[in-house]
């Protein structure tokens, strides 16, 4: 039986990580992997997480299972964080999943159960795991224009033109904030225009929000999500705590769905629990427990928010530094977009050949589409990257 299996294509980012590890140069720079790093290159454990873990160690009395959909306290805390009071709670179903990826997978399975004829519309480009999971599940998909390579900004006219062809019942996947891989985000008026259009088309919005707090602030980054939740009878959300709580290895995510009424919410909740049972039964609790403790304890929440804000401002400072260096070296404002983008990522506009030169000649590792992880830079490496980009002809 196993002889019938075929080798799967390698994940390009994981392949890049392997190449970086095998590079013996001491001055190499890793801008590929999508993990937050501080100025020393460490992915730190946040202060509030450390404190919560100490409290949990001292007070936890059992390792028994939680419910199939996870702990209600975690669900409520995440509803508060993502949706606030944008929609009545009796319309929201929630299910704890292993990471944001698990949430995306669960939402896509739910779509397949609810409407097998639906097409999932993805931004061009999008996070590579989106189309990978969709293909794996055998769901139809299409693309809408999103990023203009010439201006390194959102191609909003192209996006709206493509979304006018969406059919009733189709699902449109939108990045809640800090678009991956481009860093180019919709403005709130653009969110409103997209919402108005999708309502007229009878489409269902599906929001992937993995970087809340990394862009313009916790509430600002959720503004588009909340706007849509208040307008649509149905909505799907996949949220991750990996980045904003730094609990990558704890795999802490959640599905939130908005239903038109309580009866449909109850049916949806049962189906989400069913999907968890088929895939992994009971979700892991440790990361969710820490997140819940932080979000429900005023002192822990205040400390977490302060550290998250420092992380956000640090990335903005790095963006501004890189934009200034590129302006100084190029004598041009063509890299001004770097300071305007938000989140961990930006696409620098380098060709695949230039990306190879950056890796081979300068030891600078980035994804083939020239996406860089801003959090992989520090005050020392920013001038090195800027000089290398100009040297290879960007």
Could you please describe the fold and organization of this structure?
With 394 residues, the chain is of the alpha/beta class. It folds into 2 domains: 11-44 and 313-391, Aspartate Aminotransferase, domain 1, CATH 3.90.1150; 65-296, 3-Layer(aba) Sandwich (Aspartate Aminotransferase, domain 2), CATH 3.40.640.10. Helix content is 47%, strand content 14%. The chain has 15 helices and 13 strands. A hairpin with a 4-residue loop joins strand 5 (147-148) and strand 6. Helix 3 packs across helix 11, helix 7 (188-201) packs parallel to helix 9 (223-231) and helix 12 runs parallel beside helix 15. The longest helix is centred in the C-terminal third of the chain and has 33 residues, at 298-330.
Write the layout of secondary structure elements.
Elements: H1 12-22, E1 29-30, H2 47-59, H3 72-83, E2 92-98, H4 99-114, E3 119-124, H5 129-137, E4 140-145, E5 147-148, E6 153-154, H6 156-163, E7 171-175, H7 188-201, E8 204-209, H8 218-221, H9 223-231, E9 235-240, E10 252-258, H10 262-279, H11 286-296, H12 298-330, H13 337-340, E11 345-347, H14 352-362, E12 364-365, E13 371-373, H15 381-391
Parallel strand pairs: 1-12, 3-4, 3-7, 7-8, 8-9
Antiparallel strand pairs: 2-10, 5-6, 9-10, 11-13
